[in-house]
Design a protein that fits this description.
- The protein is built from 6 helices and 9 strands; from the N terminus they run E-H-E-H-H-H-E-H-E-E-H-E-E-E-E.
- Helix 1 links the parallel strand 1 and strand 2.
- Helix 1 runs parallel beside helix 5 and helix 3 packs antiparallel against helix 4.
- It has 308 residues and is an alpha/beta fold.
- The radius of gyration is 28 Å and the shape is flat.
- The longest helix has 25 residues.
- The strands form 4 sheets. It has a 3-stranded parallel beta sheet with strand order 1-2-3, covered by helices on one side. A two-stranded antiparallel sheet has the order 4-5. The chain has a two-stranded antiparallel sheet with strand order 6-9.
- It has 3 domains: 131 residues, 3-Layer(bba) Sandwich (FAD/NAD(P)-binding domain), CATH 3.50.50.60; 35 residues, no CATH class; 65 residues, no CATH class.
């Protein structure tokens, strides 16, 4: 006689919910996901995917505005009509005609040129088209999540669930709540509201409830990004923890502007330097919790690695 299948019901189809559902289904459980807003959750529908689409558009706009500094004109004929350069359409790199003379420029009311007169071009955003693209990408990714769940035999119910009380749901490091047999993952727990963290919380919850060997979540190994220009990535020990003495490490400022991957614009390198917490002091130093004064180190002053 076969063992009865575990019955798992998941409220919410965000990264924590659908990753939990995939793990449970792959371990033979009978899984139902209850969701009302669309699979993928806020990450796919309103936050991560839409914001990255806007960032891609704004990055392209920045490139367009700086194109003239790289020898590319937008909607403007080259000064003096020098051979080998011309404008074709709204924006293009310079190219010559077969005879070596500039190709003809479209009519006087040239798109992208204020008043149709030669001068610095002007790019613009087609907002309806941009928003339509954002919606289409979000819906496509949500549909992809639905297909993945369906392929694993997960039942999807369009409905709502509710939690009693207010505030965050308290969980331990394997996603257990104070209610027996109930786990929580994602933003409702208030634990580092990142899609990657929610997904790992959901996986750990299912591994634990289904009796698999599991290690508690390690929040000190979570990578996060701040989408400035240039982008900032963080992982591990923070500079604040180093400066306060809470972490036994040293801070080094690296001159990234000289690196081959430095983002350079017309006004010079965008990256001037980056504080990084690296390495441990020599053996025999004070414990990690004991604060101590540290002087800033330059790359040339950084201590050489000790012999094993």
């Amino acid at each position: 006689m076969s063992q009865p299948r575990e019955r798992i019901v998941i409220l919410g189809g965000g990264p924590g919910g659908y990753e939990a559902a995939l793990v449970a289904a792959q371990h033979g459980a009978q899984v139902t996901v209850v969701d009302s807003d669309g699979l993928g959750g806020a990450c796919v529908l309103t936050d991560c995917v839409p914001s990255k689409t806007l960032i891609a558009s704004s990055t392209t706009m920045s490139v367009v505005h700086g194109a003239e500094d790289l020898g590319i004109r937008i909607g403007v004929p080259p000064v003096g009509g020098a051979p080998g350069g011309a404008v074709s359409g709204r924006a293009s790199a310079a190219r010559g005609s077969a005879a070596g003379a500039p190709a003809p420029v479209p009519g006087a009311r040239m798109p992208g040129v204020p008043g149709g007169r030669p001068g610095r071009g002007r790019a613009y955003v087609d907002a309806p088209r941009l928003y339509a693209r954002i919606k289409a990408l979000a819906q496509a990714q949500s549909a992809d999540v639905a297909l993945r769940l369906a392929a694993e035999g997960v039942e999807i119910i369009s409905d709502r669930g509710a939690l009693d009380g207010q505030g965050f749901v308290e969980v331990d490091r394997v996603s257990r709540t104070t209610a027996r047999g109930v786990y929580a993952a994602g933003d409702c727990t208030g634990v580092m509201m990142l899609a990657s963290v929610a997904a790992m919380q959901g996986r750990i919850a299912m591994w634990h409830t289904l009796g698999e060997a599991v290690q508690p979540i390690r929040l000190d190994r979570v990578a996060a990004t701040i989408f400035t220009d240039p982008e900032i990535a963080t992982v591990g020990v923070t500079a604040v923890a180093v400066e306060s003495g809470a972490a036994d490490a040293v801070a080094v400022k690296l001159p990234l502007a000289t690196g081959a991957v430095a983002d350079r614009g017309s006004d010079g390198p965008h990256v001037r330097g980056l504080p990084v917490a690296v390495g441990q002091p020599d053996r025999g130093g004070p414990p990690a919790h004991a604060p101590r004064r540290r002087r800033p180190l330059t790359p040339s002053a950084a201590p050489a690695p000790s012999a094993p």
